């Protein structure tokens, strides 16, 4: 029962002390830095680390499971234990986390009648059960009852904000017990706004999420009287999305005040985030704006204005945390800790260069193109290069028949309200871009088209992050319906559809332009070069994605902001020559500018 678990937790900490935790997502941090970041968490006085599990990373294709390199969660847990930290595990299957589709793998979308987070979808339940069976074969022996660091498992994630099936959370809890063999304290966490609608289950413990205390503790006391209190997410800052004004901040003064309120209330606490890190690659998600009925894409940086910066540097909030813990729980402070500090550390391809290279590769490799009569979303592309991430190019030939203008319509139907950004070209000239940050999708777009001419119309669609909160079903990316053209006859229904995932295979085989970065260093606290940032705003670049030695650093969008730099971890560099490939959508810069610090506008 719940009291048995709580009694064991009390014994675990050997006194009246509490869980003092910080969130750090292993998949947002280079593996070489795991120990460094965990040592800094411990050095701030915290005794526990909290992490999500990203299902879409570990099972990118159905039945193909990955637990290596940055996804070696077992190694992460071993390091946490070695550092002297306990672990709160948040396996989902839904995690939100401003992560692509809240952690769900995109292949779920291809299942018939797929509905996530509900028991009426048998395909969904089967996929989750299979995933948890594999996942907990990795986690089972790391539980505290077996000598490991995991002291608690979360049941799903903030379900009261979704709350569409009263049988769903009990099903997840039973699955954790049966498949995961989780005989631990199970946490059900909710945001302050939805706390009263939370599901109370046997042998579970209800916790709260907030940035300011409000009446959260009063609500918790009413819902579960005489039980210890915990804040699973005290939001130490906030995330950014493209197009907002400035970097999201929470002042150290306010941070200090709220941390003290939480501890004075006798509550345990987890700082979300203690170290945000980076949503590398295509993994930044988006949030649903219900009033505008569209998504808004999150930035690559997940700095979160946290106690540790995106590159792992100590911030003022780290000092505040340490001072508070030293005051409330002095035994957790080890003044002998010495920390490694991140240390400071001057070409580009456009869409048509890359498509040209890609077309040559398609002749060499098996590629199964979707139906030529209508367009398909990215999830239904097949073949060696197909991917539900990155970009997709849709092309059709248009015969002009006497009008001076050609009209493209049906865009409201063709463009998913989820996070798809589309650039429209006519004969490789950009005539329009439907931006993620625009409030409306145009009814139609016109371009010059004189009688007798034939035009190639191209739609470059970007999956800029499936919605990770609130609107979770139907998160298709790319074109979801066929655009229509006025006054012409096919050629018209002959669509070419090409997947451009820009993955490691495609980059390695293409003859894309690249530049070489020379790194010559003799002094570093690590066995590799120092961290740096690429400043795309000062480089004169617009919007795109960058790869260093085959690693996808993520998206930049300096013309919109607020993020102007991309974090380049030192472990991904090597002494000597380093290959940099930049895929630019808007404008090509003259030089690449590096910086020792991040920058927002």
From TrEMBL:
Catalytic activity from the UniProt record: Hydrolysis of terminal non-reducing beta-D-galactose residues in beta-D-galactosides
Domain called Beta-galactosidase 1-like first all-beta: residue spans: 386-499
InterPro entries per record: B-gal_1-like, BetaGal1-like_ABD1, BetaGal_gal-bd, Galactose-bd-like_sf, GH, Gly_Hdrlase_35_cat, Glyco_hydro_35_CS, Glycoside_Hdrlase_35
Keywords: Glycosidase, Hydrolase
Keyword field contains Chloroplast: no
GO molecular function annotations of the record: beta-galactosidase activity
Top-level EC class: hydrolase
Pfam families named among the record's database cross-references: BetaGal_ABD_1, BetaGal_gal-bd, Glyco_hydro_35
Gene3D superfamilies recorded: Galactose-binding domain-like (2.60.120.260), Glycosidases (3.20.20.80)
Domain Glycoside hydrolase 35 catalytic: 16-327
Beta-galactosidase galactose-binding domain: residues covered: 527-578
Active site (catalytic residues): 158 (proton donor), 233 (nucleophile)
Any one of the GO BP annotations: carbohydrate metabolic process
Entry superkingdom: Eukaryota
The protein's Enzyme Commission number: 3.2.1.23
Coiled coil: none
Entry similarity comment: Belongs to the glycosyl hydrolase 35 family.
Name of the protein in its database record: Beta-galactosidase
Organism: Oikopleura dioica
């Amino acid at each position: 029962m719940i009291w048995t678990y709580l009694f064991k937790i009390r014994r675990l900490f050997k006194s009246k002390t509490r869980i003092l935790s910080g969130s750090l997502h292993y998949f947002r941090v280079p593996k070489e830095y795991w120990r460094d970041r965990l040592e800094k968490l411990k050095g701030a006085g915290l005794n526990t680390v909290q992490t999500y599990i990203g299902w879409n990373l570990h099972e990118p294709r159905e039945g193909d499971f990955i637990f290596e390199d940055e996804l070696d969660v077992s190694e992460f847990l071993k390091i946490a234990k070695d550092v002297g930290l306990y672990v709160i595990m948040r396996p989902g299957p839904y995690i939100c986390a401003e992560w692509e589709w809240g952690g769900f793998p995109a292949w779920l979308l291809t299942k018939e009648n797929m509905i996530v987070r509900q028991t009426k979808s048998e395909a969904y339940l089967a996929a989750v059960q299979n995933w948890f069976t594999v996942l907990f074969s990795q986690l089972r022996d790391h539980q505290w009852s077996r000598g490991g660091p995991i002291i608690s498992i979360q049941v799903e994630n903030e379900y009261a904000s979704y709350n569409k099936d009263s049988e769903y959370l009990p099903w997840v809890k039973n699955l954790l017990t049966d498949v995961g063999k989780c005989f631990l304290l199970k946490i059900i966490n909710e945001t302050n706004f939805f706390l009263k609608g939370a599901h109370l289950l046997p042998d579970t413990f209800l916790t709260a999420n907030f940035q300011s205390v409000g009446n959260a503790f009063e609500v918790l006391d009413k819902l579960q009287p005489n039980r210890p209190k915990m804040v699973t997410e005290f939001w130490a800052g906030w995330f950014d999305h493209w197009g907002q004004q400035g970097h999201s901040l929470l002042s150290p003064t306010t941070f200090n005040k709220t941390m003290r309120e939480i501890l004075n209330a006798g509550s345990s606490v987890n700082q979300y985030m203690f170290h945000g890190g980076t949503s590398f690659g295509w993994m930044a998600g988006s949030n649903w704006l219900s009033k505008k009925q569209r998504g808004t894409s999150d930035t690559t940086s997940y700095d979160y204005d946290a106690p540790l910066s995106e590159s792992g540097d100590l911030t003022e909030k780290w000092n505040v945390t340490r001072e508070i813990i030293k005051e409330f729980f002095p035994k957790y402070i080890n003044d002998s800790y010495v920390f490694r500090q991140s240390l400071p550390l001057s070409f580009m391809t456009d869409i048509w260069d890359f498509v040209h290279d890609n077309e040559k590769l398609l002749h060499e490799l098996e590629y199964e193109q979707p139906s030529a009569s209508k367009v398909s979303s990215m999830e239904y592309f097949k073949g060696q290069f197909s991917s539900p991430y990155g970009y997709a190019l849709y092309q059709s030939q248009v015969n002009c028949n006497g009008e001076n203008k050609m009209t493209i319509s049906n865009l409201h139907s063709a463009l998913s309200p989820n996070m798809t950004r589309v650039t429209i070209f006519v004969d490789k000239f950009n005539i329009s871009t439907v931006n993620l940050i625009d409030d409306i999708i145009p009814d139609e777009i016109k371009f010059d088209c004189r009688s007798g001419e034939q035009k190639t119309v191209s739609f470059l669609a970007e999956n800029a992050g499936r919605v990770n909160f609130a609107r979770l079903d139907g998160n298709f990316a790319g074109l979801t319906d066929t655009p229509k053209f006025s006054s012409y006859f096919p050629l018209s229904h002959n669509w070419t559809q090409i997947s451009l995932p820009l993955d490691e295979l495609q980059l390695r085989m293409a003859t894309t332009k690249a530049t070489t970065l020379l790194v010559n260093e003799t002094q570093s606290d690590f066995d590799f070069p120092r961290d740096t940032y690429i400043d795309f705003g000062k480089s004169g670049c617009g919007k795109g994605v960058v790869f260093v030695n085959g690693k996808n650093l993520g998206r930049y969008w300096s013309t919109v902001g607020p993020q102007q730099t991309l974090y380049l971890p030192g472990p991904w560099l090597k002494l000597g020559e380093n290959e940099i490939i930049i895929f630019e959508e808007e404008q090509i810069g003259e030089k690449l500018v590096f910086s020792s610090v991040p920058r927002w506008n």
